[in-house]
């Protein structure tokens, strides 16, 4: 019986898809525990489809924050996906129409990372990395989210199972691989300290927004001045 053999790019894409999709179990359970029903949880994964933004949304709701704070926090974290489109412009060309809209939906941390990890002079490998990862994560994330939501309806208080801390742990798991440089680690540390310091004095969700703003300011670097030839 012949065995299906995948090239390294597709193997990497599938590995990332399985690892990321597994977090959907925690998200589904936490979403129901935060007050959303199964259908709302499914819609959030299908339409938002950004793990960090989704965990932030249900985390704010679960902590007693307002819907406005939850949406603002989720949106702030989701803005980064728009910047990925700039880096992926050459990868997605000449995609148009429905395929372009689908590409925009699956432009996430993982699909961007796998695509850009391929050799710059191999556009086919970059496209394969993007599409296999993006679609793979989308399918597994949404399928496992449903399982988590159904599980969440039956387990009762999530604190009894340790799921009250799962949002933070899962979010850290998604963010940790991006903290490869000392600068990124320093910015993350500063933002975490700010969020922890403000948590006792500000409404739920607001410390995250302030910490995100501080992170943006701390991580910003002015462009080097361009020399004008004489």
From TrEMBL:
The keyword Membrane applies. The chain crosses the membrane at residues 12-35, 55-79, 130-151, 163-180, 192-220. Its main location: membrane. It is a multi-pass membrane protein. It is found in: Cell membrane. GO terms for biological process: L-valine transmembrane transport. The keyword Transferase does not apply. GO terms for cellular component: plasma membrane. Keywords: Cell membrane, Membrane, Transmembrane, Transmembrane helix, Transport. PANTHER family: INNER MEMBRANE PROTEIN YGAZ. Belongs to the AzlC family. This is AzlC family ABC transporter permease. The lineage of its organism: Bacteria, Bacillati, Actinomycetota, Actinomycetes, Micrococcales.
């Amino acid at each position: 019986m012949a065995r299906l053999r995948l090239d390294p790019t597709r193997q990497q894409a599938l590995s990332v898809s399985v690892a990321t999709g597994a977090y959907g179990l925690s998200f589904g359970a936490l979403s129901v525990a935060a007050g959303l029903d199964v259908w709302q949880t499914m819609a959030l994964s299908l339409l938002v489809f950004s793990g960090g933004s989704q965990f932030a949304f249900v985390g704010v709701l679960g902590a007693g924050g307002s819907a406005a704070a939850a949406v603002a926090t989720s949106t702030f974290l989701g803005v980064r996906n728009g910047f990925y489109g700039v880096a992926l412009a050459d990868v997605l060309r000449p995609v148009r129409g429905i395929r372009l809209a689908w590409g925009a939906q699956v432009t996430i941390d993982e699909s961007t990372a796998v695509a850009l990890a391929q050799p710059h002079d191999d556009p086919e490998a970059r496209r394969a990395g993007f599409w296999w990862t993006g679609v793979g994560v989308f399918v597994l994330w949404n399928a496992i989210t449903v399982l988590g939501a159904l599980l969440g309806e039956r387990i009762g208080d999530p604190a009894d199972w340790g799921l009250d801390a799962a949002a933070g742990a899962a979010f850290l798991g998604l963010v940790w691989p991006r903290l490869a440089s000392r600068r990124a680690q320093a910015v993350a540390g500063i933002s975490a300290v700010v969020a922890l310091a403000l948590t006792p004095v500000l409404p739920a969700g607001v410390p995250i927004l302030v910490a995100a703003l501080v992170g943006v300011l701390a991580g910003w670097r002015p462009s080097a001045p361009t020399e004008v030839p004489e």
